[in-house]
Amino acid sequence: MKTHVPDVGRGHRLVRGLGSRRSASSLLAWAVALVAAGITLPDIVGWALVDATWVAEDRAGCDPAGACWAFVVNRLPQFAFGFYPPEERWRAAVALAWPLVSLAIALGPGFRRRAAVVAAALAFYPPVAGLLLLGGLLGLPRVPTSQWGGMTMTVFVGTVAFVAAFPIGLGLALARRSSLPALRLLGTGFIEIWRGLPLIAVLFIAVVMVPLALPPGTELPRLVLALVGITLYTSSYLAEVFRGGLQSLGAGQGEAASALGFTYWSAQRYVVVPQALMAVVPGILNTVVALFKDTTYVLVVGLFDFLSIVSAAVADPRWLGLATEGYVFVGLVYWAFCFLLSRVSARIERDIGRGRERGRSA
Amino acid sequence: MTDVAVEVASLSKWFGTFLALDDVSLRVPRGCSTVLCGPSGSGKSTLLRCLNGLETWQEGEVRIAGTRVRSRPGDLVALRRRVGMVFQSFHLFPHLDVLANVSLPPRINLRLPRAEAEDRAHRLLAEVGMAELARMFPAQLSGGQKQRVAIARALAMEPQVLLFDEPTSALDPESVGEVLDVMTQLAEHGRTMVVVTHEMGFARRVCHEVVFLSDGRIVECAPADRFFSDPASDRARTFLGQVCR
User: Fold this and answer.
1) What values do phi and psi take at B66, rounded to 5?
2) Which of A12, A80, A179, B168 could form a disulfide with B176 if both were Cys (CB 3.0 to 4.6 A apart)?
3) Where on the phi/psi map is residue A302: left (φ > 0), alpha (ψ -120 to 50), or beta?
């Protein structure tokens, strides 16, 4: 709860603050910010809101003075679901909403075993959402991956890559710290190779070169190959984040666990890894935000993620010349999603802190 | 069953070229408490850590209750479930509360059902005077309280031998007593204990045997009352003169 600050105190602080140099520079910063806002905001608000057109059949129906949001509104289903067959869109909607609902649960009011519920929801996402989108069983018509796209594709690729990369990254981090030289070499080599490649190169290798190495006749959809590439790429980054957490622990915890008769694996599971993960929550979420934005690179291998589907729509003759609206919308959606992720990170950090706090007052 | 709880035969250990333990032999009978003492760098902590395989060595052998300590991981895990250890800086698990710190090892390593492991933890916490604080986290405890929880945690595995590695050296002077009281109680109940400590008063009052090390060698090994009243070696006499002022 915020407590009411009495006016007297605030006035006093202001008066006292005015005298200091720090307050002078803070006033200057405020002045610059206000002037900048005064110059830019009226134009932006005028374009984006006051003069904007929200409903129109095509470009000609839009007021040229303002933003033509009718374009975005018109194409919203396609932006969300790509070329997924319209009558099956509920499946794409479930796949799109699932991770968002999981994040909302993580941000919402707490309840018993919330962390476990969110973790289970994410862990089951790749197989269940994958089969739901693909269909071909339980009476669902098959929808080839080439028809998947839009925000659904972006969220699917991001979530699946994260969920799959998490255990792989943990394994790599443990391998890199192993006392067995061969394992350590393997872990270190894997991490350094994947971390040293640009993601675009990884995607090209996955989509162009991997099929050459597969036995003839096997054909994997490009989406699967791209997912494998992004997952391994992300796992090497997560591995280094996890390693930071493992190293922050010091030898004492592992020694204490050994001395109590824990096996290597149970010591990792119950003692070392939980502490290491708690220590690096901001780093993990940072990697997730980067991963989510990096999913846009799948367009180079011909997958229609959110960004590329908007790019395609911008080229539609009926709506020609509305690139600004399209990309502003893309930017807003990406920003909102990443902001949501950073709130989740802040929430987890606060909950960890509060767990200790609660213990303190007990 | 043999009556020798710990047997060390001709143990030698090098750190690089530095000889840390030089042909050390030692027997600790069941139910006895033995103190390892000596100047810093004399190898007493290293010797203690060899007893549960936290350190490896080059020559000689260690037997706990007749079973040889080997470096195979599976053997070490089995051994450590029978040998408890209390560290100088506690090493409690900070992400778990006191009750979980004590109940987790038997729950995971002895596959005890949760309720049974927690009953055992409550009983042991009561024994070390920490029953009231079972729901606290380690960060909220004083040093003495942490060390008492660490002792309860080591006891939760029902070990045959308890090792103490300078258990009071990281404590405020006023918490030393509460930890020593718990240890005294354990020794009086006939626990087999090997204690590295500088608390000579405790050693004299409570322990049966004193092993005095210097430069990686056992210089003197004697019953506690004789060691303190009439040390045989000059080095032990000098050491006692410095420590028991």
Assistant:
1) 90, -15
2) B168
3) left
Q: Which of B71, B79, B95, B120 to mutate to test the interface with A (most CBs of A within 10 A)?
A: B95
A113-124: pLDDT as tens digits: 888 888 898 999
Residue A3 has pLDDT above 50, yes or no: no
Q: What number of residues does chain B have? A: 245
- Name the DSSP letter for residue B149: H
Q: How would you class B221 by CB atoms within 10 Å of its CB: exposed for 0-12, middle for 13-18, buried for 19 or more?
A: middle
pLDDT digits (tens, 9 = 90+) for A178-192: 888 999 999 999 999
Give the H/E segment covering residue B26: strand B18-29
Question: Rounded to a whole number, what is the distance in Å from the CA of A354 to chain B's nearest CA?
Answer: 12
Instruction: Kindly report, residue by residue over A39-82, the tens digit of the pLDDT.
Output: 888 888 877 777 777 777 777 777 777 777 877 777 888 888 88
Of A252, A261, A356, Cβ closest to residue B109: A261
Query: In chain B, what are the domains?
Result: 4-82+160-243 (3.40.50.300), 93-158 (no CATH)
Eight-state DSSP code of residue A87: G
Contacts of A274 in chain B (CB under 8 A): 95
| % residues pLDDT > 70 (chain B) | 98
Which residues on B lie below 8 Å from A256 (Cβ)? 85, 87, 91-93
Nearest CA-CA partner of B155 in A268, A259, A271: A259
Nearest to A230 by CA among A246, A249, A207: A207
Helix (H) or strand (E) holding A170: helix A150-176
* Structural contact between residues B77 and A261, judged by C-beta atoms closer than 8 angstroms: yes
Spatial CA neighbour of B147 closest among B132, B164, B135: B164
- DSSP string for B190-244: T-EEEEE-S-HHHHHHH-SEEEEEETTEEEEEEEHHHHHHS-SSHHHHHHHHHH-
Whole-number Å distance between alpha carbons of A201 and A195? 11
pLDDT, residue A282, reads: 87
B29 token code pair: 């009978």
